[in-house]
């Protein structure tokens, strides 16, 4: 895929929100162990926010890999204007170290956040992201049910678009420059 393949298409390919969402006041702990103020740290940047977990067998790693691949085909100037924030839905197993190592496999600039499940679930609920407490199965495995949408907050702090599981790399790469420019 080349950037030339992305030019000329009008409008974003993500799912338009009928009711845009303001950036929530998320305050959790980063992989460095320090408090992370989501609004302040991502102010003026296109921010892609995803709730998931590192032991996920399918959607979470695929989504992070697809976003990383899309960012990889964009000019460095665009890439520098994007924050990708991953909030764990399995904070008992996703310690800061686990979260940091897992995200670094995709892109070392990706931000991982953790905190109490109750706090994380409250933030997810503000955005309409389904999140259920992790449940241990009889075989010892853990099931973590969570929404699969990536919420895209434009540099003005408003989300007009979400991306669902299975969004293609080319669609992220097409939309990111438009979202940076405030075109939704």
From TrEMBL:
CDD domains: SCO. PROSITE patterns: THIOREDOXIN_2. One of its GO terms (molecular function) is metal ion binding. It comes from the Bacteria. Keywords: Copper, Disulfide bond, Metal-binding. InterPro entries: SCO1/SenC, Thioredoxin-like_sf, Thioredoxin_domain. Residues 17-167 form the Thioredoxin domain. Cu cation binds at residues 56, 60, 146. Disulfide bonds join 56-60. The keyword Metal-binding applies. It holds the Pfam family SCO1-SenC. Belongs to the SCO1/2 family. This is Electron transport protein SCO1/SenC. It comes from Candidatus Protofrankia californiensis.
């Amino acid at each position: 895929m080349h950037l030339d393949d992305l030019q000329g298409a009008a409008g974003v390919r993500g799912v338009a929100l009928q009711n845009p969402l303001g950036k929530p006041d998320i305050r959790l702990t980063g992989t460095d162990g320090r408090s992370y103020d989501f609004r302040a740290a991502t102010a003026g940047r296109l921010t892609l926010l995803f709730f998931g977990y590192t032991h996920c067998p399918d959607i979470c790693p695929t989504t992070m890999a697809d976003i990383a691949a899309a960012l990889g085909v964009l000019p460095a100037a665009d890439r520098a204007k994007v924050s990708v924030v991953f909030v764990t839905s399995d904070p008992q197993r996703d310690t800061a170290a686990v979260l940091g190592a897992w995200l670094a496999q995709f892109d070392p600039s990706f931000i991982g956040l953790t905190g109490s499940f109750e706090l994380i679930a409250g933030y997810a609920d503000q955005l309409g992201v389904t999140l259920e407490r992790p449940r241990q199965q009889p075989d010892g495995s853990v099931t973590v049910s969570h929404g699969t949408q990536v919420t895209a907050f434009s540099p003005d702090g408003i989300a007009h678009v979400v991306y669902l599981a299975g969004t293609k790399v080319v669609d992220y790469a097409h939309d990111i420059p438009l979202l940076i420019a405030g075109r939704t």
